[in-house]
Write a structure and sequence with these properties.
The chain is of the alpha/beta class and 327 residues long. It has one domain (23-326): Bacterial extracellular solute-binding protein, family 7 (D-Maltodextrin-Binding Protein, domain 2). The chain has 13 helices and ten strands. It has helices at residues 2-18, 36-51, 72-78, 110-117, 122-132, 159-162, 172-180, 193-199, 209-214, 240-245, 248-282, 292-300, 303-326, and strands at 23-28, 56-61, 83-87, 136-151, 166-169, 184-187, 205-208, 223-226, 231-239, 286-289. Helix 7 (172-180) links the parallel strand 5 (166-169) and strand 6 (184-187). The termini are far apart.
């Protein structure tokens, strides 16, 4: 009797384990897992799987193994993948307003950035509403830091130094900024920029300093010019239909994990950038800070970029800029 009871108990236990539904949540990431966005996704994965007792199985596909960053919005929106990480500017084709974060020198303090990305802010509500029209909705934001310029053989201190040079950009408005300074923008994915610098496809690089560290860009560029001319934001976006198919409790667990991951990366980004600058210097790069006169020269050529943004976004763009001016 004891033996039969034990067998029955084990069988029921096995059956219960076998019938536990497991939902895959695949996430595409263009950066390596060793980058701070990769580390942040790993934290998110851990939180989700613990909170859902493994019923949500998070799989991270890093280094653009599934999709390049420019392909992520369509892949997520179509449901080809459950989730993806993309630079905010990758949504500019469907939602031109997202490029507010690439308005030259608009977000020049951490306080301004935090106010804009805060949940419930006018900026965040408008941008997330526009992104949702693509079939994907923002789960959380990932701070990446300020935009910098990379070069070989000398710094890009002023717009005069940019004239006639080809520059890697990762968004339309950043391209407009290069054009306004007299350069020729070339749109190149983050995962492809190392080769672009190595082959001389472009003369000037543009990225965040954390990317210099994670991609070891000191091997192909020797100078960083600290312009901080834009704030780089990434978003983790989930397919709307997939999200709606989850029960409310599971959505709550994922949202809670997202909040932890979002706060963690935002709170650490300043130190992450400091560590990346230190690593770049240790690996032979020259770090160039701009003086007030040089900074003013960049700001002086930037007005056409702002005009272009307002023309592309109309009343919605004006509402966003007005909300920022009010803060």
């Amino acid at each position: 009797m004891f033996r039969e009871t034990l067998i029955a108990t084990l069988a029921l236990s096995f059956l219960g384990t076998a019938t536990v539904a497991q939902e895959k949540m695949r996430i595409s990431l263009q950066l390596p897992l060793t980058s701070h966005l990769g580390e942040n996704l790993t934290l998110f994965e851990k939180e989700v799987e613990e909170r859902t007792n493994g019923t949500i199985d998070v799989e991270i596909y890093d280094s653009a193994t599934l999709y390049k960053d420019k392909e992520v919005p369509a892949a997520v929106g179509s449901g080809a993948i459950e989730a993806g990480v993309a630079s905010l500017t990758r949504y500019v084709g469907d939602a031109p307003v997202v490029d507010v974060f690439y308005m030259p020198f608009l977000f020049n303090t951490e306080d301004k950035v935090r106010a804009a990305v805060a949940e419930g802010s006018t900026v965040r509500e408008i941008l997330e509403s526009e992104i949702a029209k693509t079939g994907g909705q923002v789960l959380y934001w990932q701070a990446y830091g300020g935009a910098i310029l990379l070069s070989q053989g000398g710094p890009i201190r002023t717009p005069e130094d940019m004239k006639g040079k080809k520059a890697r950009v990762f968004g339309k408005t950043l391209g407009d900024f290069v054009t306004a300074a007299g350069g020729a923008p070339t749109l190149i994915s983050g995962s492809e920029q190392y080769l672009a610098y190595q082959r001389g496809t472009v003369d000037v690089g543009m990225t965040g300093v954390s990317g210099v560290k994670s991609r070891k860009l000191w091997e192909v560029m020797d100078t960083i010019t600290v312009t901080n001319h834009a704030d780089i934001e990434f978003v983790v976006v989930v397919n709307s239909e997939w999200w709606d198919s989850l029960d409310v409790e599971t959505q709550g667990h994922i949202s809670a994990a997202a909040k932890i991951a979002q706060d963690d990366v935002r709170d650490r980004v300043t130190q992450i950038e400091a560590d990346a600058y230190a690593a770049a210097k240790e690996n032979g790069m020259t770090i160039v800070e701009l003086n007030d006169e040089e900074l003013a020269a960049w700001q002086a050529v930037s007005q056409p970029v702002i005009d272009g943004y307002l023309k592309a976004t109309g009343d919605t763009g004006k509402r966003i800029l007005d909300s920022l001016s009010a803060n």
